[in-house]
Design a protein that fits this description.
alpha/beta; seven-stranded mixed beta sheet; four-stranded antiparallel beta sheet; 39% helix
């Protein structure tokens, strides 16, 4: 029997399960791979669940765009933290994580064969979503510090371009884009009548006094789509709650996509999210402060690799993106690090970087002692494997 073919054959396989299988086959491996935090959601998350259980109608479908109390709470957060006013020109749609928000956006603004501009290195699930939609990623390289090159973005626009994607704070590099650069991208998109899709999943994770900026706060949001997530800052990875701020004219299209794929975000998770948003400021301050300490520990160790790796300054998210001075294939290097040194990182090829050997190092999932051991294994492994 002939094997069936589909559009999915042209979509890269998600790397996290692949590396996860290697880790499983090498017990005792410390993972500097997956981008999650080490801490749990705030206690308010669980305290709100009885409210869900108390209403017998909560086992029924709810509004496609989210339950009203959560939409109200998110509007307050967006105004207070992001400077985004929800008004007659825009609206919020709650999603099952911000990856779903991205898929919603791509399907809502494109036709098959259209182009989406991605800045490299890109987030692999963005590239996968574009391929699934039958569209084409147009790759624009960032500069030597992984910062945006707005003039290159403008030059990459064609009649088929429908959107430019930015991620700040960035996955996989950890860099934070400047307000000036993001304003330039907004202006380019507005001038060309295309969308700026801004992924802000790591909005709370900034260091050294750097501040996060939301493009939807710049004024007219006619061509700006912002994506947010509770997965990172609130330890909500498996609860699957994110949200979008979209121009009002996209609301019907987004609802069509979401109703088809999901109907409505899991209502119990929406109640949990409503609880999480009641948490005191100290919850984020303490937990992100602890990650900041781990970040410094990781950076101090990585700095010993000067001459062997290029380490770009990164003031956001919980990643460092290393360029290793070797001709080795990145995935082969990852396999050896797991098998010989019991430490896991992610190869840069999955982020579209195939012009050298790149590694993404994630430090959010580990507390100090484990992080110290993991990064020591990585430093030792790179020094030995690459120098030999």
């Amino acid at each position: 029997m002939e094997s069936l073919t589909s559009r999915m054959q042209g979509v890269q396989s998600p790397i996290i399960p692949v590396v996860g299988e290697l880790i499983k086959n090498s017990p005792g491996t410390i993972s500097l791979g997956q981008g999650v935090v080490h801490y749990n959601p705030p206690p308010e998350t669980i305290e709100f669940l009885p409210k869900f259980l108390a209403d017998s109608a909560n086992n029924l479908y709810k509004s496609v765009e989210g339950i009203p109390p959560l939409l109200t709470a998110l509007a307050g957060k967006l105004q207070a933290f992001n400077g985004i006013e929800i008004n007659g020109e825009n609206c919020i749609v709650v999603t099952a994580g911000s990856n779903m928000g991205f898929m919603n956006a791509i399907l809502a603004v494109t036709n098959p064969g259209d182009e989406i501009i991605l800045n490299t290195p890109y987030y692999f699930n963005h590239e996968m979503a574009i391929a699934i939609a039958g569209c084409h990623p147009v790759l624009v390289a960032t500069d030597e510090n992984y910062q945006l090159r707005p003039e290159a973005i403008a030059q990459a626009i064609t009649p088929k371009t429908r959107a430019v994607v930015t991620i700040s704070p960035n996955n996989p590099t950890g860099v934070v884009y400047s307000e000036a650069a993001l304003r330039q991208v907004n202006h380019i998109c507005d001038t060309n009548g295309i969308y700026h899709i801004s992924d802000e999943a790591y909005e709370y994770f900034t260091y050294n006094g750097v501040k996060h900026v939301s493009p939807s706060a710049f004024g007219s949001s006619k061509y700006t789509i912002s994506l947010f997530s509770l997965s990172k800052a609130y330890g909500f990875a498996s609860w699957r709650i994110g949200y979008m701020v979209i121009p009002k004219h996209l609301f019907v299209a987004i609802k069509k996509v979401q109703d088809t794929i999901l109907i409505c975000p899991p209502v119990i998770s929406q109640y949990a999210a409503l609880g999480a948003l009641q948490a005191k400021e100290e919850y984020l301050q303490i937990n992100i402060g602890a990650i900041s300490q781990v970040r410094q520990l990781v950076l101090d160790s990585l700095n010993r690799l000067q001459g062997l790796c290029s380490i770009t300054p990164a003031n956001g998210a919980f990643y460092f993106f290393l360029k290793v001075d070797t001709q080795m294939d990145a995935f082969e290097l990852v396999k050896r690090l797991i098998q010989e040194y019991k430490v896991a990182v992610i190869p840069g090829t999955t982020f579209g970087m195939d012009d050298g050997c790149y590694l993404r190092v994630a430090y959010g999932a580990l507390q100090k002692e484990t992080a110290k051991e993991g990064i020591e294994r990585l430093v030792q492994g790179l020094e030995t494997i690459v120098r030999n």
